[in-house]
Design a protein that fits this description.
The structure holds two protein chains of two kinds. Chain A is an alpha+beta fold. Chain A has one domain. Chain A is built from three helices and seven strands. In chain A, strand 6 and strand 7 form a beta hairpin. Classes of the chains: A alpha+beta, B mainly alpha.
């Protein structure tokens, strides 16, 4: 997360698929999980899709996050080098548009 | 769908003050018992119904004219937002800001037609777009609306509203690289 940098996420279109567990002391977890076509809950743990900003807030709440895949497209003016790469984790094929997410997935796989 | 911000029919009639399109007001009892009004005052019942229809017809024709003016298509658009997005894109092009077209392979597939993209041919012809799309679609959950307290609670409550919160946040966005 430190290598990723908050500004880098904020200045991008980022969408991720994650598994997450918040500490039980978190009163208002911020990650939405769909129950069915009309209901959304905000549980302490689960699997969901989220945006980069939701990811950032969850990290601030000391959430443990396992990244399953995602797309990171920097803003045109954020001067971040773009690279397209397909990574594979847990049998899923993941399209990665930015090398930073690639390295994050690598880190998680090693961990 | 064709009124700005879910305007009432009365407000829509008010958009054309120079025309006799003022909505006829009835008492609240009449609204609840239209069948009684029809029996007791058929003239008023008929005038009320016709006036509402006239307001709708005139507004639809005005929207149709605007649609023709902005897009060259002489039809009534499904929503005002589709007309607004076309107008905005035209203005951006005029001002030299340009417009953004997502990468769609050979250009045969458009984001405006997602069902077409989710076909064997669509997936193949859409370049990388179909691979990005799932993550962004899945991440859209809408606004969070939740009550943290239930029942009778004593004390002072503050209700904060942020006018234009969504457009303000969106103004910080940039074109994708």
């Amino acid at each position: 997360m430190e290598s990723f940098g908050e500004e880098r996420i904020l200045k991008s279109y980022t969408a991720l698929k994650i598994k997450f567990v918040f500490p039980c002391t978190v009163q208002y977890p911020n990650l939405p999980v769909r129950l069915d076509f009309t209901s959304i809950i905000f549980p302490l743990s689960g699997e969901t899709f989220c945006t980069g900003t939701e990811f950032l807030l969850a990290m601030r709440l000391n959430c443990e996050i396992q990244l399953l895949g995602g797309v990171h497209i920097p803003f045109q003016n954020s001067l971040i080098q773009k690279e397209t790469r397909v990574a594979r984790t847990e049998g899923r094929e993941i399209l990665v548009v930015d090398p930073i997410i690639s390295s994050l997935i690598d880190d998680y796989q090693k961990a | 769908m064709l009124s700005p911000g879910g305007m009432s029919l009365k407000a829509i009639g008010g958009l054309y003050p120079s025309l006799p399109l003022k909505k006829i007001e009835l008492s609240s009892d009449c609204y609840k018992n239209m069948d009684v009004l029809q029996k007791e005052d058929p003239g008023l019942f008929k005038a009320y119904a016709l006036q509402d229809a006239k307001i709708v017809l005139w507004h639809a024709l005005e929207v149709q004219n605007s649609h023709y003016k902005f897009t060259g298509k002489y039809s009534i658009p499904v929503t005002l937002s589709s007309l607004a997005s076309f107008y905005l894109e035209e203005e951006l092009v005029k001002k030299g800001t340009g417009h953004y077209h997502p990468k769609t392979g050979n250009g045969l597939i458009s984001l405006r037609n997602i069902p077409k993209m989710m076909t064997p041919a669509g997936v193949e012809l859409s370049g990388d777009l179909h691979e990005y799309l799932d993550y962004f679609l899945g991440s859209y959950h809408g606004g969070r609306n939740e009550s943290y307290l239930y029942g009778v609670v004593k004390g002072t409550f503050y209700d904060y509203d942020l006018p234009g919160a969504y457009p303000t946040a969106m103004s910080l966005l940039d074109y994708p690289a």
